[in-house]
Amino acid sequence: MIAWVSTLLLLIYNVDLPESDTEEQLEESFVKTVFELLIAAPIVEEVLFAGFIYPILRKKMGTRTGIALNSFFFALIHLKPILIPLYFVPAVVKMYAYERTHCIYVPMIIHFLHNFFIVLMILL
User: Fold this and answer.
1) pLDDT of residue 16
2) Which of 37, 39, 66, 124 has a Cα-to-Cα distance from 116 of 20 to 30 A?
3) What letter would DSSP give residue 40?
4) Nearest-CA neighbor of 42 among 101, 106, 88, 97?
């Protein structure tokens, strides 16, 4: 089961697989992918978007436009045009929460929870 789920997650997130994967290699890739989705992505992406890009956009264009543009840029970096709305909407929620709290941990937690539920849906 872990091999199937690993392969599915790796394919969804465009991870190249070696020619001959053993069960152990797939489990290792799965753990790496889950770590990237649940820990690395929320921290790195929110530091970049909420902590760096959004404040610049907010200062130059205002809160609403800043949130909208930042969320659009966030959706674009995922390189899946068909999924832009699915990335855009949670990004708006995260930026609105950040704007209300001015705490970088809030969008990180929302991002983690969003990714966690996606992983959970894939696993179930």
Assistant:
1) 57
2) 66
3) I
4) 106
Q: Which residue has the tokens 């930026």?
A: 95
Task: State the DSSP code for 98.
Answer: H
CA separation for the pair 41, 94 (Å, rounded): 14
Q: Please, which residues have CB within 8 angstroms of residue 20's CB and are 6 or more apart in sequence?
A: none
Taking the domains of the chain in order of start, what are their residue ranges?
A: 38-124
Q: Report the alpha-carbon angle 61-111-81, nearest 5.
A: 70
Q: CB count, 10 Å around CB of 109?
A: 15
Quick one: CA dihedral 69, 73, 76, 82, positive or negative? negative
pTM of the predicted model over 0.85: no
Dist CA 56 CA 78 (whole Å): 21
User: Given a cut of 60, is residue 44 above it in pLDDT?
Assistant: yes
